# Entry
Amino acid sequence: MAHYAFLDENNIVTEVITGKDETELIEGLHPEIWYGNFRNQVCKRTSYNSNIRKHFAGVGYKYDETLDAFIPLQPFESWILNETTCIWEAPIPYPNDGKDYRWNETTIEWIQKV
# Structure
């Protein structure tokens, strides 16, 4: 079995389904193409282990054609997308002192949890 994400006109994931294995043809077509034609939507394969397109697609994720990756929702306005990993990163690295922190978007800093 494989998983497939359907995209709207803005490349936003609207649904993820379990379907035919990517090596099996459906009526002579690769499943991505067949499912896309059947639903009249762009369809892209995704995988739980993130071997394909960086992340398992989730509803609301954006598919970036240039990166060929599913991009999760940006957690905070100040965070920057690492285009290599396709993971959002804080503008200030998480402290590496063994303590727990939360991000404060107003002050753009990590605040220690109490």
User: Anything to note?
Assistant: Residues 40 and 53 are 22 Å apart (CA to CA).
